[in-house]
Design goal:
The complex is a heterodimer of chains A (about 110) and B (about 140). Chain A is α/β, with parallel strands linked by helices. Helix content of chain A is about 40%, strand content about 30%. The mean pLDDT of chain A is about 95. The mean pLDDT of chain B is about 95. Classes of the chains: A alpha/beta (about 110), B alpha+beta (about 140).
């Protein structure tokens, strides 16, 4: 997995690419998310457009970020959820937990 | 230090997460050789990753001198993959329901549930000297 980040209108956009399956790769996303939380940047969108697939480790990272941000008055939203990941969110009922948007722009606007 | 070993349709790895990618590359390569479509490849790759992570962390307790074997075979339109660890076994009946309200926001505990959802058949044979999990998926899904 590769990871890039940027900011848009005061919102952190995290852009993982590839597969989120656990091991050293997955900690990249976890560590970057917590780096921004420690900088008090608590509006975060994870853009999943270029994530081929993720497993339960990836879902666990999303949940960890979601709960940590929620507990510190922040918020995590998802954008560009691919069909494969949407299927995982549905079968695990996590589709009821995450706010998901069809584009990063829509997710960023939803913070206002 | 031990390294992954490929022998025919089997890859054997030490119990470390750093070798997850080796297993994924091996399995996806064989599946593409079988002509599987990308959706089926992803379902199997996700399931194998779940089971290998469990074998490493729960079965072999991340002890690198203990190995995990992953074997793949094709029988007509069905692909069968077997994951074997050298741990102490587990009781599948003790796995908590990840869909229960009290478990929904837990960061872990969904692996076997996801595998059962994605695969056509899952067989778990867990005894005192290891666990063998066999998953089957049709290439036509």
């Amino acid at each position: 997995m590769r990871l890039s980040d940027r900011e848009q209108d005061g919102v952190v956009i995290l852009e993982p690419k590839g597969k989120i399956m656990g091991g050293p790769d997955a900690s990249l996303l976890h560590d970057k998310l917590y780096e921004f939380i420690e900088q008090n940047k608590k509006k975060v969108v994870i853009d999943l457009a270029e994530v081929d697939w993720m497993n339960s480790t990836g879902l666990g990272i999303l949940i960890s970020g979601y709960t940590t941000l929620r507990n510190t008055d922040g918020e995590l939203k998802l954008a560009n959820v691919t069909e494969k990941i949407q299927s995982l969110l549905t079968i695990t009922k996590l589709v009821t937990v995450f706010d998901a948007y069809e584009s990063v722009d829509e997710a960023v606007k939803a913070f206002k | 230090m031990k390294k992954p070993v490929i022998s025919g349709d089997t890859i054997t790895i030490p119990s470390s997460m750093e070798y997850l990618t080796d297993v994924d590359v091996f399995i996806e390569g064989i599946l593409r050789g079988y002509g599987a479509d990308e959706s089926v490849i992803a379902d199997i790759a996700i399931s194998v990753s779940e089971l290998v992570i469990n074998a490493i962390s729960h079965g072999n307790e991340a002890l690198e001198d203990k190995m995990v074997d992953v074997s793949i075979s094709r029988n007509g339109k069905n692909v069968t993959i077997t994951i074997t660890d050298q741990g102490c076994g587990f009781d599948p009946g003790e796995i908590a329901d990840p869909l229960a309200d009290e478990n929904l926001l837990k960061e872990a505990g969904r692996g076997i549930f996801i595998v059962r959802s994605l695969m056509d058949k899952v067989e778990i044979d867990s005894v005192d000297d290891g666990t063998v999990i066999t998953i089957t998926k049709s290439l036509n899904n």
